[in-house]
Design a protein that fits this description.
By secondary structure, the chain is of the alpha/beta class. It is built from six helices and five strands; from the N terminus they run αββααβαβααβ. Keywords: Hydrolase, Metal-binding, Zinc.
Length: 160
């Protein structure tokens, strides 16, 4: 049996974490790593201690803010980064695996925290119907390595 590449392992974990999301609109997962070790994980959803959107607002989800985004959602990347920092783990020079490329807001946080590389599965721009991925453009402009995942996810059967 051929051993899986770490990129495949980490992206598959991100896909499986996305399945934990309580968001009605989109499930996103993230894995933050250094070399071959996992620092932190995250998925999108409301802040801990509030409520789960799929339970509180079944079928429609939480309300939208003035920009059309979920009012309660913390993005998967934000959750992974915040959990790492809350637990005194350094995220500097780490790699972030995420199932949806970072939005511009998340890209600013990723850059500011010193994350060196982002590997993403799907395009945020395509999901939102935008002309370009502003978050990826920002990261590339300021020296963060960005890579579309092109590996092999053998065990993934369905992703929302």
């Amino acid at each position: 049996m051929e051993k899986p590449q770490f990129d495949d392992i980490f992206m598959e974990l991100a896909v499986n974490l996305a399945k934990r999301s309580h968001c009605i609109k989109r499930h996103v997962g993230a894995v933050l790593t250094k070399e071959t070790r996992i620092i932190s994980i995250g998925y999108n959803g409301p802040p801990a201690g509030t409520h789960n959107c799929d339970e509180e607002f079944p079928g429609k989800g939480c309300g939208l803010d003035s920009k059309g985004s979920c009012m309660l959602a913390i993005h998967a990347e934000q959750n992974a980064i915040m959990y790492a920092v809350k637990n005194n783990a350094s995220v500097e020079n780490s790699t972030l695996y995420v199932t949806l490329s970072p939005c511009l807001s998340c890209a600013r946080i990723i850059f500011s925290m010193g994350i060196k590389k982002v590997i993403y599965l799907n395009s945020y721009a395509e999901y939102k119907g935008l002309d370009r991925d502003e978050g990826l453009d920002f990261l590339e402009k300021f020296g963060v390595e960005v890579e579309k995942y092109r590996g092999n996810l053998e065990n993934v059967t369905h992703m929302i």
